Amino acid sequence: MEAECTDVRKLEPAAREQLRRTVMRMHKRGHKQAAIAEELGLRRPTVTGWIAQARAGRGVKEARRGRPLGDGRELTPGQEERIRKDIVDNTPDQLKLRFALWRTQAVRALIKACFGIDLPVRSVRNYLKRLGFTPERPLKRAFEKKPQAVQKWLTEAYPAVAVRAKAEGAEICWGDETAVSSVENYPRGYAPKGKTPVLVLSQAKRERINLISAITNQGTMRFMMYRDTLSAEVLIKFFARLIRDAGRKVFLVLDNLRMHHSRKLLEWLADKPDKIELFFLPSYSPELNPDE
Description:
Elements: H1 13-28, H2 33-40, H3 44-55, H4 77-89, H5 104-115, H6 121-130, H7 147-168, E1 171-181, E2 208-216, E3 221-226, H8 232-246, E4 250-254, H9 263-270, E5 276-280
């Protein structure tokens, strides 16, 4: 019974290339084509064809399979570069499109507006991938944010804090507060058009827990759970525990929450300058706080 031969078309290019080279080595050593085919489990015409290619001076290099690179594209390289530049340099509304952020439909509309080419959504996604774009969740930035204040904090205020912390042997911590509730804030559910679904909840059975935490530049995190509303008393309790756990002076960086500037808290801090000192981030700049 004749042994089953390997279908070289199903092999990976590297494996196929290695087989070709083996065939050529055996042929140069004087092996007959039939013997080579039997030894390697190949069909005789496959071996014959590879040897004929080598004799014709085409070598044994693996040829590229499939359609040529770029075949079937509707946009020229120049048009692709124009689209890439428009996406990088502008937002859709700046180009008089009805979108706020770049997404597939926005890019599709841009291509149609610029070149009169109406591409399918799938093709637009392929172009975006080829141009190095990926879908990203946008960052939220407060309108009231002041870039000059942020830049001053980064280049002047924080470096000064770091120098002082090193000189005084203090530990820099970044603090923040948050809360978790068992009631989902923004649930979604399908319903007939025009009939808004009603979600029945028991407020009596709602569970909520608050957390206040601080993280160091080295990644050490300390936190405290509490059920009451955030108050000066809660902050004082946490700060006292933070000082005790750190074992040295703490430089604590916070946002500008009103409670962080409360009179009762400031009075408690007044006689502890050797234990804890507060520093405040620029307004509306949560991205500067690693604990955020």
